Amino acid sequence: MEYQTITYDLAEGVALITLNRADKMNALTTQMRAEIAHAVKQGGEEARVVVLTGAGRAFCSGQDLGDRANSSSIDLERTLRDEYAPMLRAIVNCPVPTIAAVNGPAAGAGANLALAADVVFAAQSAYFMQAFTKIGLIPDAGGTYVLPRQMGTAKAMGAALFADKISARQADDWGMIWEAVPDADFDAHWRAKAAHLAAGPTAAYSAVKAVVRGSWDNTFEDQLAFEAQEQGKCGKSRDFKEGVLAFVEKRSPSFEGR
After folding, report:
1. How high is the pLDDT of residue 74?
2. Distance (Å, rounded) from C-alpha 49 to C-alpha 45?
3. Is 73 helix (H, G, I), strand (E, B) or coil?
4. Which positions ≥6 away from 101 have C-beta within 8 Å?
5. I need a surface site. Which of 4, 72, 99, 246 has the fewest CB within 10 A?
6. Is 45 within 8 Å of 10 (Cβ atoms)?
């Protein structure tokens, strides 16, 4: 697929997807959503980690309100169901770890696009904003699911009602993201973390994603059983054998990702 609104680069096990409408602060269009979904699926098949970031000064400003598909008669339910949901599912269900490298503002659906990733790094100058009530809407693109689970109901409710900017440092302190990083170190930092995951035990990472995300739907007893099941699979992997051998031999492991 030839991408027009994003770029896709694959190197050393890292699939880098860059939202590439810098003049529009990488606002989402119908085409961009389809391209992101396709690229994430492709990355899940041929890479060991997938990274999403933005070109220019923003990560993503949310829905492009000037998109030709957007009008007073737009069917928002259909748009969310048929365009946003496949993109978000591709990220959440990606078989390898996903990283959002939030280089600048992430607003509305752009914020929730980032928060769908497994790990979020944000430059300290970046911010997140649930901008929806500013135009008479509710948070969407998975925001009402993710926010209460990451930062608690009280913070999620305030973020949704007031639509205030949440700085990267606040997001870090509140448990909304993994880490806020000084701007000068941001690019090198997330690239190093992506390289770390790309060289790691990919099958184990996939199992981590499954058990952590699945825990919300399980009782304690169910989760113990799920853990045991997934750990049993990991225990049969080549990477587990390599990890134990490396430990015994007092060297760094060389994981194959299987």
Report:
1. 78
2. 10
3. coil
4. 51, 52, 53, 121, 186, 190
5. 72
6. no
Cβ contacts of 221 within 8 Å, gap of 6 or more: none
Mention every residue, 6+ apart, whose C-beta is less than 8 A from residue 242: 253, 254, 255, 256
- What was the pLDDT predicted at 19? 98
- To the question of pTM greater than 0.70 for the whole model, the response is yes
Residue-wise pLDDT tens digits, 107-151 = 999 999 999 999 999 999 999 999 999 999 999 999 999 999 999
Q: Quick one: DSSP state of residue 131?
A: G
How far apart CA 146 and CA 175 sit, in angstroms, is 11
**Structure-token match 């994003």, residue found:** 6
Tokens of 30: 């119908």
d(CA 15, CA 51): 6
Q: How much is the pLDDT for 72?
A: 52
Burial grade of 86 (CB within 10 A; 0-12, 13-18, 19 or more): middle
How far apart, in whole angstroms, are the C-alpha atoms of residue 138 and residue 17?
28
Assign residue 142 a region: left if phi > 0, alpha if psi is -120 to 50, beta otherwise? left
Identity of the amino acid at 92 = V
The answer to whether 15 and 49 have CB atoms below 8 angstroms apart is: yes
Nearest in space to 106 (alpha carbons), one of 182, 159, 49, 150: 159
Residues in the chain, total: 258
Instruction: Kindly report the number of other CB atoms within 10 A of residue 169's CB atom.
Output: 13
pLDDT at 212 over 70: yes
What value does the mean pLDDT take over residues 14-36?
A: 96
Token pair listed for 25: 């602060």
Structure tokens at 98: 């996903």
